[in-house]
Amino acid sequence: MSDPATIRTRLREEVERPAHARKASGRLGEIIVETWLREQCRLEVQPLPQDMGTKRFLLPEGGKRPDFAVAFNLSEDCFFVDAKLHATNGLSQFSLDLNEIADFRSAMRQLDVDHLFIALLPLESVDRLYLISLDEIERDNEFGSKGVFALDPEDPHRRFGPITRDAYDAALERVRNEGFKGDVPDYP
Description:
This protein has helices at residues 4-16, 24-40, 52-58, 98-111, 134-142, 165-177; strands at 44-47, 68-71, 78-86, 93-94, 116-122, 128-133, 148-149, 159-162. The protein is α+β, with helices and mostly antiparallel strands. Strands 1-2-3-5-6-8 form a six-stranded mixed beta sheet. The chain has a two-stranded antiparallel sheet with strand order 4-7. Helix 2 (24-40) crosses helix 6. The N and C termini lie far apart (41 Å).
């Protein structure tokens, strides 16, 4: 375990770190998901601020901020979406650990939102996006499995959307223009 001085130094570095120092792959996932929700689903998408100052304001009791608040047109009801560019063991499974689920639940409670979806872009195949409800992930964890299975786009129960090469390239260009560094997965 680190001593308090080391922890303070690391927190200060995190606060002072420029936004572009975040991982390029994470930002790529956020851009692809936001664009897909706006253009393919025709939903109103509001990115949630991700800096430390707004986290304390939005979530005084702690929790994990999702990336987006999403609303249907002409509706006051909204739901949360968190983008994940994540390995899926060859498109066979995806999971969140129990602490991350609890952190999302805390945010939902504090912000009075009933539904949260994970927008999963598999690292192995970034040409598809899956929407998986937090309820489904939590239920699968309760029953002892190690995640959500059947990421097959042919499964009629799986919510799935294609990501085109043009959309991927546009998102990647935006990531690079914003100054993000790091590796990103190749488009298949």
